[in-house]
Design a protein that fits this description.
This protein has two helices and ten strands. The chain is mainly β and 118 residues long.
């Protein structure tokens, strides 16, 4: 059991990471709904949907477009360039031309702080 516990701490990119970093204020995200946050070397998109906060890569996997400039459609974000939608929970690309999924990141809310595990 001890070993499996450690295995769960690997992020999807395979790097060891247990650090939650404060990236934004919940009050700000509730107003904007979509928010780009840059934290080297990451560019992240925070999204507020039905009381939940999601963190995914901000850059569309098809072309270098900022998804924060896109629009929310339920629990999906739509790319402003070619209209590909990505599921915020899974990162899956739902429409062509995008095919690759976005990385998703664990989120914790601490009071008004949005903490993301990178």
């Amino acid at each position: 059991m001890h070993h499996s516990f450690h295995a769960t701490r690997f992020s999807s990119t395979g790097t060891m990471s247990t650090q939650f970093i404060k990236l934004a204020a919940l009050s700000e995200l509730k107003i904007s709904k979509l928010l780009r946050v840059d934290h080297e070397p990451y560019s992240l998109l925070l999204a507020y949907v039905d009381g939940n906060v999601y963190a995914v890569d901000n850059t569309c996997t098809h072309e270098d477009a900022s998804l924060a400039k896109g629009s929310l459609h339920g629990d999906c974000v739509k790319c402003p360039l070619h209209g590909s939608r990505f599921n915020l929970k899974t990162g899956e690309a739902l429409d062509e031309p995008a095919e690759e999924k976005l990385n998703t990141y664990p989120v914790k809310i601490d009071g008004n702080d949005i903490l993301v595990q990178l």
